[in-house]
Write a structure and sequence with these properties.
Helices cover 5% and strands 42% of the residues. By secondary structure, it is mainly beta. The strands form 5 sheets. Strands 1, 2, 6, 7, 8, 9, 10 and 12 form an 8-stranded antiparallel beta sheet that branches. Strand 3 and strand 4 form a beta hairpin. The protein is globular and about 65 Å long. It starts with 10 loop residues before the first helix and ends with a strand. The model has no long low-confidence stretch (mean pLDDT 95).
């Protein structure tokens, strides 16, 4: 199965990484007004929820960013530091559950700065004024080819946005990591999930996230296998590289960790992600990079260099788990090829 199976979202939302994910490190650093709902909620990874009887001191609790009603000229805006610098391919401005209090329109600017923007920062429009509707996902493409570090969401004139997702591809600073050790499987370095056998539980994309899992839902977990075989997940690395060592973390997986794992790898060159089905078929025959290795509950398993078969440069890996279960994080440390 590929992440796009039965997924009606546009290609950029299925394929690319949410650079505005709080779970990857994105942060709202300024806002004109968030009286009703804190702007930080807008970057949450989970889908927005509506709790009918939940109120706080400012009124109805809403899962997202909501400003007060304007009684004069102007509009509201929020600045977000992206989790990684990258090229933006599209947005999801999600007004879920905002029915009588959504903004009628929005526009988005972006900048590229070291540190955070200030009064002298030059902003560039990457999404022109665009109408918004009530309680809906608004998938909007971005044609900019530049690399950006921050975005500024303008809502006109006020209201609520449940989630802002900024899809794109992290820009790996090759000069900074040339010859050094980096995590080729990190989403912040551009790695992404191509396909999996099953992802019934948890959040499979968190397999490539920074840090350790915070609970059993923070990682990739399959359903209980009731037939022969084993489960697997395929990762396109952030860059073509040579894997030197690995780390498999089963944090919080105690009665449901896999008995063991193995890793296959291949160099597919510039094969496009749109050929995911071809990648899945080919992966059965990829060379073994790490032989089948036992796993234990709720633990970090470091795989030393001598346990990694030297295959040379690779672009994709297939993580096999036997027979099923959950993995919190996968790290593949190595060098650029």
């Amino acid at each position: 199965m590929t992440p796009s199976s039965d997924d009606p979202r546009p290609a950029f939302a299925r394929r690319d990484i949410n650079l505005a994910s709080a779970g990857l490190g994105a942060e709202a650093i300024s806002v004109t007004d968030d009286f009703f709902a804190d702007v930080s909620r807008m970057l949450a990874d989970a889908d927005a929820v509506f709790v009918p009887d939940k109120y706080d001191d400012h009124g109805k609790w809403m899962d997202g960013w909501e400003s007060r009603r304007r009684r004069g000229p102007g509009h509201d805006s929020a600045v977000v530091r992206l989790a990684a610098r990258g090229r933006i391919t599209g947005f999801d401005v999600d007004t879920s559950h905002f029915t009588g209090n959504f903004p009628p329109a929005c526009r988005i600017e972006a900048c590229a700065v070291d540190g955070d923007p200030d009064a002298t920062t030059e902003w560039h429009e990457v999404l022109p004024m665009t109408p918004l509707g009530p309680s809906a996902h608004h998938y909007l493409t971005c044609d900019s080819a530049a690399v950006w570090s921050h975005v500024r969401l303008h809502i006109h004139p006020d209201g609520g946005v449940a989630r802002l997702r900024v899809y794109g591809r992290p820009e790996l600073d090759r000069a900074a990591v040339e010859g050094g050790d980096l995590d080729l499987a990190s989403a912040l370095n551009g790695a992404r999930i191509v396909a999996f056998s099953d992802a019934h539980y948890g959040s499979y994309h968190r397999l490539l996230a920074p840090g350790r899992g915070c609970n059993m839902g923070d990682g990739w977990e399959t359903r209980r296998r009731r037939e022969p075989g084993n489960d697997w997940i395929i990762v396109e690395l952030g860059a073509r590289g040579i894997i030197d060592r690995a780390r498999v973390d089963t944090a919080f997986f105690k009665g449901n960790f896999p008995e063991s794992f193995s890793l296959q790898a291949a160099d597919l060159g510039s094969l496009a992600g749109d050929l995911a089905e071809a990648v899945v078929t080919a992966s059965m025959f990829w060379d073994e990079a790490i032989a089948r290795t036992p796993l234990t509950a709720d633990a970090i398993h470091d795989i030393a260099t001598e346990q990694v078969r030297p295959l040379g440069p690779v672009t994709h890996v297939r993580l096999n788990i036997y027979p099923d279960g959950g993995i919190s994080r996968l790290r593949l440390f190595g060098r650029l090829a």
